[in-house]
Write a structure and sequence with these properties.
The chain is of the alpha+beta class and 408 residues long. The protein contains twelve helices and 14 strands. The structure holds FE2/S2 (inorganic) cluster (2 copies).
Length: 408
């Protein structure tokens, strides 16, 4: 069997070599769990990071990042490989399977069933690496005895459970399926299972803020499932016409968005802006483009596309659909956001991300309401997921109902 280095060195010799600068990015397309994926990555980005941070496939764990522990094992073109030792730009055109492709919660792969039945995991941190390594072993070895399994699985380290149980789990599957090894259950289904809901498509982590803004005539969102979908609605005292009037004034609108700053208006409803977001101790400052693609006077509806990057390498792409309707107590403002996130911000998880977006929306609508009533809006500095509602909302929507619903 060729080493990972040999296989990818050969790949480099077969393909033309391009020289790109460290801060440039390159679009790389490959197949993950039977589904096409494209990432836009800097040349230094590891496959493990591309899978986790760009595609949201956090089932692949990272331990040592030195090729020692085996946590990050995935299948590349039919062979087990440590994804922390491969650069994402080396897998152009490859077929990759991660632990998400092995099975689903409703349809586990026999190896996953067997690990559960044999208590072959404790904290579970090594389990994705163990499962992928075991899958590779079953695929390549026609006959296996327990000593072989222990030997061949020794490339994945477990810190807390008994190796005997792991060997037993793999051995049982090998005995149960002597002729034809069980196929993966979630490849080619078009569904990734992940923290990021199966994010695929083009994303822009690694793009510097300066190169992001002014560089796009149009914003193209990834075609895949968003990292999160947030659906929120709130009722404010001001009537729908007045709220709509404020929403036509982009400067006023930007002032109502917590932590936001309008930097430049390019005309044609294209803007550059900055927004500061605080997620606990982590402070992020996103700079990017906002394009209003629908401004529907009759239905009081605005649809905007957003593409922004943080200096730390995170990026957010979103479609935000805002609609204002009449309400017996004033008006109701509804927002639907399809948000794609990569980098540090994506690691906070859907729940916290949804809380942050929901709270930002509440601040935004209460500020709109306050502006319509001629009140001064407090400067909140950064949008924050923690305690943010205290600063603006206080007293502004008293007695009115807030109804929020979440998706996913
Ligand atoms: S994280 Fe890849 S081998 Fe340890
Ligand atoms: S089950 Fe905890 S590291 Fe293996």
């Amino acid at each position: 069997m060729k080493s990972t280095l040999q296989r990818f060195t050969k790949r480099s010799e077969e393909n033309p070599v391009y020289r790109i600068e460290a801060d440039e990015t390159r679009e790389i397309s490959f197949t993950v769990n039977g589904k096409e994926a494209t990432v836009n990555v800097a040349p230094r980005v590891l496959l493990s990071d591309a899978l986790r941070q760009h595609l949201g496939l956090t089932g692949t764990h990272i331990g040592c990042e030195h090729g020692v522990c085996g946590m990050c094992t995935v299948i590349v073109d039919g062979e087990a490989a440590r994804s922390c030792l491969i650069l994402a730009c080396q897998v152009e055109g490859s077929e990759i399977m991660t632990v998400e492709g092995l099975g689903t919660p409703d349809d586990l792969h026999p190896l996953q069933e067997s690990f559960g039945a044999n208590h072959a995991l404790q904290c579970g941190f090594c389990t994705p690496g163990m499962l992928m390594s075991a899958y590779d072993l079953l695929e390549h070895e026609e006959t296996l005895d327990r000593d072989d399994i222990a030997d061949q699985m020794s490339g994945v380290l477990c810190r807390c459970t008994g190796y005997r149980n792991i060997v037993e789990a793999v051995s049982q599957v090998a005995e149960e399926y002597p002729d034809e090894r069980p196929a993966p259950r979630n490849c080619g289904s078009g569904q990734h299972l992940s923290h990021g809901c199966g994010v695929t498509g083009v994303a822009n982590p690694g793009i510097s803020q300066d190169s992001l803004i002014r560089s796009r005539d149009t914003i193209t969102l990834p075609t895949s499932e968003p990292t999160m979908v947030v659906e929120v609605e709130t009722v404010v005292e001001t009537d729908a016409d007045e709220i709509w009037t404020i929403m036509q004034d982009t400067e006023q609108l930007a002032r109502c968005l917590p932590g936001a700053e309008l930097i430049e208006d390019f005309g044609n409803d294209k803007y550059v802006g900055r927004i500061k977001v605080a997620l606990g101790p982590v402070k992020l400052s996103f700079l990017g483009d906002v394009h209003v693609v629908v401004r529907d006077q009759e239905n009081k509806r605005i649809v905007a596309l957003v593409e922004a990057a943080d200096k730390g390498g995170g990026s957010v792409q979103a479609e935000v659909d805002l609609v204002i309707d009449e309400h017996p107590q004033g008006s109701v403002i509804r927002a639907l956001g399809n948000v794609h996130m990569t980098g540090r911000i994506a690691q906070f998880g859907r729940s916290l991300g949804q809380d942050a977006v929901r709270d930002m929306f509440l601040q935004f609508t209460s500020a709109l309401d306050a502006t319509a009533r001629g009140e001064e809006i407090a400067d909140v500095g950064s949008a924050s997921a923690f305690g943010m509602a205290k600063q603006i909302i206080k007293g502004r929507i008293s007695g009115l109902s807030n109804k929020m619903t979440r998706k996913k």
